[in-house]
């Protein structure tokens, strides 16, 4: 199923840790549910399925592993995630919003871990049978500012050091520059309300939601929905 063949909407959020992906994905999903009447599926990588939770524990909180093993585990999680959750939801016509997708593997395992970009990308494209989001929102922020927002003990990737995270940030920016039709790059240092409005406008344009003009009003505060999985 290509993005042109699916009946649902597929949107991914990308960026470093602490940039606000969870908050903005929640706000966007609630708004899209209101303006489109579609069901919204919130999910994440890794950990969007029961198997994904096991793999998430291994890659983020387990023992040290070499970069190739890490890349393969993320690809395995993604293959199962797409087959068991994302594709069925898109076939139903739902909105799927994921906190991270294959672009994170390219940024972290190729950019951060310095594996070959083509190898990491091709691995994920094979795992997902080429499924890409219609819109990818990159919340860009200096990694040091993002780290200062974190409130829990850092995981394996969060502890990888400033140089690693600077390479990862640049990899995200480089990838976004190569495909401006899919990517929306926003300054994550702006206010929650400003970012939410910018995202609504960009999504309206890219998904062709001509009748859904984003409101300039501040998004209401709602409790965070339960993660799918």
TrEMBL record:
InterPro entries: P-loop_NTPase (IPR027417), Thymidylate_kin-like_dom (IPR039430), Thymidylate_kin_CS (IPR018095), Thymidylate_kinase (IPR018094). CDD domains: TMPK. The keyword Transport does not apply. Signal peptide: none annotated. Gene3D superfamilies: P-loop containing nucleotide triphosphate hydrolases (3.40.50.300). One of its GO terms (molecular function) is ATP binding. It catalyses: dTMP + ATP = dTDP + ADP. The keyword Kinase applies. Its EC number is 2.7.4.9. Keywords: ATP-binding, Kinase, Nucleotide biosynthesis, Nucleotide-binding, Transferase. ATP binds at residues 15-22. Residues 13-199 form the Thymidylate kinase-like domain. One of its GO terms (cellular component) is cytosol. GO terms for biological process: dTDP biosynthetic process; dTTP biosynthetic process; dUDP biosynthetic process. SUPFAM superfamilies: P-loop containing nucleoside triphosphate hydrolases. Belongs to the thymidylate kinase family. Phosphorylation of dTMP to form dTDP in both de novo and salvage pathways of dTTP synthesis. NCBIfam families: DTMP_kinase. This is Thymidylate kinase. The gene is tmk.
């Amino acid at each position: 199923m290509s993005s042109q063949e699916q009946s649902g909407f597929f949107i991914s959020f990308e960026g470093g840790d602490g940039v606000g992906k969870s908050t903005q994905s929640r706000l966007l999903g609630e708004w899209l549910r209101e303006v489109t009447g579609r069901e919204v599926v919130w999910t994440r990588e890794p950990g969007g399925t029961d198997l994904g939770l096991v793999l998430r524990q291994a890659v983020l909180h387990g023992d040290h592993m070499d970069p190739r093993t890490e890349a393969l585990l993320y690809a395995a999680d993604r293959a199962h995630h797409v087959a068991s959750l994302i594709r069925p939801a898109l076939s139903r016509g739902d909105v799927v919003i994921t906190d991270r997708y294959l672009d994170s593997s390219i940024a972290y395992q190729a950019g951060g871990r310095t594996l070959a970009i083509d190898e990491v990308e091709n691995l994920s494209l094979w795992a997902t049978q080429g499924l890409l989001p219609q819109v990818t929102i990159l919340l860009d922020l200096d990694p040091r500012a993002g780290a200062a927002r974190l409130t829990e003990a850092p995981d394996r990737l969060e502890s990888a050091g400033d140089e690693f995270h600077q390479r990862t940030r640049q990899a995200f920016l480089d990838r976004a520059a190569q495909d401006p039709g899919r990517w929306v790059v926003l300054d994550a240092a702006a206010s929650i309300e400003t970012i939410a409005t910018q995202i609504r406008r960009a999504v309206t344009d890219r998904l062709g939601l001509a009748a859904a003009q984003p409101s300039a009003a501040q998004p209401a505060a709602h409790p965070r929905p339960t993660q799918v999985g």
